[in-house]
Amino acid sequence: MLKIISLLVLVVLVMASAISVVYSKHLNRKLFVELQQLNKSIDSLNVEWGRLQLEEGAWADHGRLEKIARTELGMLMPDVDSVVYLKP
Known about the structure:
Blueprint: H1 2-59, H2 62-71
């Protein structure tokens, strides 16, 4: 009788171990898929960040700003005689 109970306990433990292995594999695959999605998201965000940096550089171009200052704001460069340099 003791052998049968021991055998049943071992069978239950082996089944529990097998189920936990299957569950851990499933969880591992699920987390790997999530990791791949996050990496893809990181890549797309890096591409967008680079595009935004290029766009910012284009908007802050000195020639563009000077053209806007002259045409839209009516600003002009001051004469050389009217510029005052201050020493710190």
